[in-house]
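Give me the fold.
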Amino acid sequence: MNSKPKKVLVIGSGPIVIGQAAEFDYAGTQACKSLKEEGVTTVLVNSNPATIMTDEGVADVVYIEPLTVPVLSRIIESERPDGILPTLGGQTGLNLAVDLADAGVLDKFNVRMLGTPLETIKTAEDRELFKRLLEKIGEPLPPSETVHSIEEARASSKTLGLPLVVRPAFTLGGTGGGIAKTEAELESIVEAGLAASPISQVLLEKSLIGWKELEYEVMRDANDNCITICNMENLDPMGVHTGDSIVTAPSQTLSDREYQTLRSASIKIIRSLGIEGGCNVQFALAPGDIVHNSLLEKGLLAEQDCNRSSDDIPYYVIEVNPRVSRSSALASKATGYPIARVAAKIAIGKTLDQVANAVTEKTVAAFEPALDYCVVKIPRWPFDKFPTGDRILGTQMKATGEVMAVDRSFEAAFQKAVRSLEISNRSILWEDPSWKENKDHILENLPLEPSDQRLWVLMAALREDLEPNLLAEITGIDPWFIRGLKNITTMETKLLSGTLDQEILRDAKRLGFSDAKVAVLTDRSAESVRKSRIEWGIRPVYKMVDTCAAEFEAQTPYFYSTYEEENEASPTKKQSALVIGSGPIRIGQGIEFDYCSVHAAWALQDEGIRSVLVNSNPETVSTDFDTSDRLYFEPLDEESIRDILDNETCEHDSGNLVVPPSVVQFGGQTAINLSQTLSHAKLPILGSTAESIDTASDRHLFEDFLSRIGIPNPPGAAVANLQQALKVAEEVGYPVLVRPSYVLGGRAMEIVQNDSELKHYMAIALEAGSGRKVLIDKYFQGREVEIDAVCDGKDVLIPGIMEHIERAGVHSGDSMAVYPGLNLSKREVETIVDYTTRIGQSLEIKGLMNIQYVVVGGTNYRSPSSRDNVNLSEETSVFVIEVNPRSSRTIPFISKITGVPMVQLAVKTMLGRSLRDLGYHSGLYTKQKLVGIKAPVFSMSKLPNVDSYLGPEMKSTGEVMGIDKTFNGALAKALIASGLALPPNGSILLSLANRDKPDAKNLVTDLSKSGYELYATDGTAKMVSSLGVPVKAIPKKLNEGHPNVVDIIVDGTVDAVVNTVTGDRSVLQDGFKIRRAAVDKRIPCFTSLDTARAAAESLASGEEDYSVRPLNHYRV
């Protein structure tokens, strides 16, 4: 056995993308803490600044650098770790470890792979090697063939027959995969899969659509001790990626024999692979009789493939993830078993019987958790942002995040999970009116194919008395689940038709009905329902998630609500505060708000305050068992929060009832939206008052506020209806910006050019803002600037000013933000500091706020790399765009760049301490001698039919950071980490809007200077030629001959695309196929001229000599 390593390099997973989200921040953070407990020095590398794992206190040494082989080679050479732990960084970490080994870096510096051996990783990830292993150990796998070209795929399809599942090797979230039902689909999906696979390999597998999908989370140590931690059953049958499926834990429909058969197979597989640590095994299991017979009738199943009369249980092994996975996070939170913590200890040589169970503090980790409750996970999809996207679900994942709910029954957990999704105006009662337009053909109208809306479709079908068995035959979903949903609709009918009494209400609450849902069904207010149930003594109790179903006494502070008798979460007299988390990861509200919630909990503890945290997201650090003093896993709505506060309220020695204050500033828009309801209920809020929050968040109130204190904002007005909006637009002139109140990620914000567009987008904005007034203001195409500030009610600390590379009009979350604002004049900086201070003081902010400004006048684009040519004395004006009275997505970035602990300071000021007492002064903090650039990362390749052009509504799923002593070094790293770096030699397609052509001269000359071959659409080609630069004109319209613009993208002629657009919707549609082709080809596609110019300048500068240093060394 190898000796315990003294220093370990932990590889992170990079930015949040579809298929790889916050679960790896949780895993990496837990692993670093676990290794430090064992006296191992930890070195952490990740490119994502929004994570807890990249905090300097989590690992001993932290690098926020691009995740590439050259960068990691330099880190390994400098740090000389004994081992590398790649199994906690998702597919990114795993692939990097393989690449480092193949490049000889690990051998050169004598670094050993910890946990899972290299050959095991290759065997599990390489489809052909994995197939051979399963054949060797006698485990069944679907008929399949591995191919490396379209020609091989065509030949294999003749042998295997269609439909076929296409599974690329070494990819995440099913990237590049799909189900091919025709030869044309096969060729298209195989081409995408080969492009997505790092080893250009895909597996063609006989389709098992309709079979049950099961997962087992398994752990093994070096002594061959093996346990299964949890099994999970997908409600959706095979054919839907498990990340897009509704999942239950434990399985609900398996017989004991089926459960044990798959458990034994899982252990057999992990032993054969020699994995040391955790792994996830996925199975397809023959469906029950109803679905089985339906598949036979449809010709989707041959009797010999599923011989149910045999003594053997028909199942197949689908795949193995030889690492901590998305499902590992779910299994960990579902059971309370700290998978990543234990896996890290096993990786350095400990065995399961040597690892203490941190939950019970009385047993060891060599046990299989027991669950006396039901867990339901529902994915969070982004189609409220992208209504034109392809909503049909398949083998390529589309969800950005997920929620988890725990209760005693499937029905109750399911309803809780739906509440947790936080989709505007989409309760479980929602139905699309078109589904029931023709009552005589209801079944034909219901879209029962797999989609993000199917759970609502099933509920609608059951309300029309369609039989559960019939729905099971159509969908392939086991009838047990559909009967569970039928129990919910039966209770709905009872509530609709009967009198609400104590017995019915108690039964409804036990089935997971919210007060709001009961109110709608019984025609009363939610507050009156709440009042009635409290009078009747119908209150939730809270049960512990203890890993052992109460077999042993547990110390865990992890609870869920249910309607039973015994309450296991007793209140305490110790001073407490409730931190409201941010819910599921989604576009506009990502991991950065979990970062803030975690730091808020820690800061409260530092001040001697007991931190209580509530969240619904199983992927995050905030829902780890040891982050806060008490954790509630509940929906983030008014009912849940008030129930928790009731449970935490206790009588002090004085006889007074003390209600813990709520902390709403750190959970994004989710938490801030609860501020008003909490205030109406006369419940205390820590920090800024509900009135201050409302003034800043409500567009109408905020406009009046700025007018009173004499700070300019773009001309416009808040309106309540379309007629008022048209009048304002006429007064200020088009283009105008439509902005609803209390929304996240620029939801429903749009730049509109005329009356017809305004009519369309006003309806959307009013719905998104839940009827609140919408701001219509003049759109200024200036330079956008952003600040985060900490306020104590008197002093206002600004750690730094961030300037966006893209001009205003691109959402701040989709912009590249540069610290410090290199191109701002002294007067502009002074104005921004003055406005920020006055706003913070006038609003009496206590805690955090974020302000976005637009600088109008002068040059729209000022290049930081050529500042000598910029006239900083140009006459400009600064306008306030908006104020967010809470943490923002830039808090982790600015905290790590400047070293100012923003959240900790905010919490301390909320508790009454002054900034001066904490050692800080009012105004702008000392500028660091470095440059930091936050760059967005997009997941457009996972979302067919979604346009990638950038506008005021956010589209990115994650972010990376480039940091260096120079702008060019920081920019190069930000572009590399975000996948937007232009290759050193190549060709590019330019298709520019007319308004951008005058500003494109530097872009063209930089590309030409770098030796790029230029292709352009006709109008752009004329502009390029006028500069004396060679260019090839290409037809833009696809019916005007070949090669056209799409052809040269698809065939690999060009390495990048610049396609800028005007506000004209017809022009926008013309360029859609260009942008979509670039996304599908996975090449950089710039829709903002400013981003393209920055990338071209980086290329032209030839800055290869960027630094690679620990984060704290940049601030020295």
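The first strand starts at residue 7 and ends at 11.
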